[in-house]
Protein backbone atom coordinates (compact mmCIF):
# COMPACT_ATOMS: atom_id res chain seq x y z
CA UNK A 1 0.00 0.00 0.00
CA UNK A 2 1.43 3.37 -0.99
CA UNK A 3 1.05 5.97 1.77
CA UNK A 4 -0.75 9.14 0.79
CA UNK A 5 1.41 12.23 0.69
CA UNK A 6 0.15 14.92 3.03
CA UNK A 7 1.75 17.85 4.79
CA UNK A 8 0.83 16.52 8.22
CA UNK A 9 2.90 14.05 10.19
CA UNK A 10 -0.47 12.54 11.08
CA UNK A 11 -1.13 11.42 7.51
CA UNK A 12 -2.93 8.11 7.28
CA UNK A 13 -2.01 5.42 4.71
CA UNK A 14 -4.41 4.97 1.81
CA UNK A 15 -4.12 2.70 -1.21
CA UNK A 16 -3.33 4.48 -4.44
CA UNK A 17 -6.12 4.30 -7.02
CA UNK A 18 -4.36 1.55 -8.98
CA UNK A 19 -4.00 -0.54 -5.81
CA UNK A 20 -7.73 -0.62 -4.97
CA UNK A 21 -9.10 -4.14 -5.45
CA UNK A 22 -12.69 -5.14 -6.02
CA UNK A 23 -12.52 -7.89 -3.38
CA UNK A 24 -11.39 -5.40 -0.72
CA UNK A 25 -14.14 -2.93 -1.62
CA UNK A 26 -16.82 -5.62 -1.52
CA UNK A 27 -15.49 -6.96 1.78
CA UNK A 28 -15.53 -3.47 3.29
CA UNK A 29 -19.10 -2.87 2.15
CA UNK A 30 -20.34 -6.27 3.32
CA UNK A 31 -20.64 -5.07 6.93
CA UNK A 32 -23.90 -3.25 7.80
CA UNK A 33 -22.13 -0.56 9.88
CA UNK A 34 -19.59 0.17 7.17
CA UNK A 35 -22.32 0.28 4.53
CA UNK A 36 -24.21 2.71 6.76
CA UNK A 37 -21.13 4.96 6.98
CA UNK A 38 -20.74 4.91 3.19
CA UNK A 39 -24.43 5.69 2.69
CA UNK A 40 -24.12 8.70 4.98
CA UNK A 41 -21.00 9.90 3.18
CA UNK A 42 -22.67 9.44 -0.21
CA UNK A 43 -25.63 11.52 0.94
CA UNK A 44 -23.49 14.43 2.12
CA UNK A 45 -21.44 16.63 -0.20
CA UNK A 46 -18.97 17.53 2.54
CA UNK A 47 -16.43 15.49 4.44
CA UNK A 48 -17.70 14.37 7.82
CA UNK A 49 -15.87 13.90 11.10
CA UNK A 50 -16.07 10.51 12.79
CA UNK A 51 -18.11 12.05 15.61
CA UNK A 52 -20.85 13.07 13.15
CA UNK A 53 -21.82 9.42 12.72
CA UNK A 54 -24.29 8.04 15.26
CA UNK A 55 -23.38 4.36 15.23
CA UNK A 56 -24.68 1.89 17.83
CA UNK A 57 -21.19 0.48 18.48
CA UNK A 58 -18.25 1.34 20.74
CA UNK A 59 -15.68 3.93 19.78
CA UNK A 60 -13.05 1.24 19.19
CA UNK A 61 -15.40 -0.65 16.87
CA UNK A 62 -16.19 2.58 15.02
CA UNK A 63 -12.46 3.20 14.60
CA UNK A 64 -12.07 -0.32 13.21
CA UNK A 65 -14.85 0.21 10.66
CA UNK A 66 -13.31 3.48 9.43
CA UNK A 67 -9.89 1.81 9.16
CA UNK A 68 -11.31 -1.05 7.05
CA UNK A 69 -13.03 1.45 4.74
CA UNK A 70 -9.86 3.54 4.43
CA UNK A 71 -7.52 0.59 3.84
CA UNK A 72 -9.83 -0.83 1.18
CA UNK A 73 -9.87 2.49 -0.69
CA UNK A 74 -13.56 3.25 -0.13
CA UNK A 75 -12.95 6.39 1.93
CA UNK A 76 -10.18 8.93 2.40
CA UNK A 77 -9.39 10.17 5.90
CA UNK A 78 -7.43 13.34 6.51
CA UNK A 79 -6.66 15.42 9.54
CA UNK A 80 -7.60 19.09 9.61
CA UNK A 81 -6.37 20.41 12.88
CA UNK A 82 -7.54 17.92 15.46
CA UNK A 83 -10.51 16.68 13.41
CA UNK A 84 -10.28 13.54 11.30
CA UNK A 85 -12.39 14.08 8.19
CA UNK A 86 -13.87 11.29 6.11
CA UNK A 87 -14.77 11.50 2.46
CA UNK A 88 -16.02 8.94 -0.01
CA UNK A 89 -13.54 8.16 -2.81
CA UNK A 90 -16.39 8.20 -5.32
CA UNK A 91 -14.27 9.35 -8.29
CA UNK A 92 -11.74 6.57 -7.77
CA UNK A 93 -14.41 3.91 -7.27
CA UNK A 94 -16.48 5.08 -10.24
CA UNK A 95 -13.43 5.11 -12.52
CA UNK A 96 -12.28 1.65 -11.44
CA UNK A 97 -15.69 -0.03 -11.12
CA UNK A 98 -18.26 1.95 -13.14
CA UNK A 99 -21.76 1.73 -11.68
CA UNK A 100 -20.76 -0.42 -8.70
CA UNK A 101 -21.14 2.19 -5.99
CA UNK A 102 -24.46 3.48 -7.34
CA UNK A 103 -25.78 -0.07 -7.65
CA UNK A 104 -24.76 -0.94 -4.08
CA UNK A 105 -26.14 2.29 -2.64
CA UNK A 106 -29.40 1.82 -4.52
CA UNK A 107 -29.72 -1.78 -3.34
CA UNK A 108 -28.97 -0.72 0.25
CA UNK A 109 -31.65 1.99 0.08
CA UNK A 110 -34.23 -0.46 -1.29
CA UNK A 111 -33.36 -3.00 1.40
CA UNK A 112 -33.61 -0.34 4.11
CA UNK A 113 -37.05 0.71 2.84
CA UNK A 114 -38.19 -2.92 2.55
CA UNK A 115 -37.10 -3.64 6.13
CA UNK A 116 -38.52 -0.38 7.49
CA UNK A 117 -35.12 0.96 8.57
CA UNK A 118 -34.41 4.72 8.58
Please, could you describe this protein's structure?
The protein has 118 residues and is α+β, with helices and mostly antiparallel strands. It has a single domain, classed as Arc Repressor Mutant, subunit A (Orthogonal Bundle). Helix content is 47%, strand content 12%. It is built from five helices and three strands, in the order ααβαββαα. A three-stranded antiparallel β-sheet has the order 1-3-2. A hairpin with a 2-residue loop joins strand 2 (75-80) and strand 3 (83-88). Helix 1 (22-29) packs antiparallel against helix 3 (59-72). The longest helix is centred in the C-terminal third of the chain and has 16 residues, at 100-115. The chain starts with 21 loop residues before the first helix and ends with a helix. Residues 2-8 have low confidence and may be disordered. InterPro entries: ArsR-like_HTH, HTH_ArsR_DNA-bd_dom, HTH_MetalResp_TranReg, WH-like_DNA-bd_sf, WH_DNA-bd_sf.
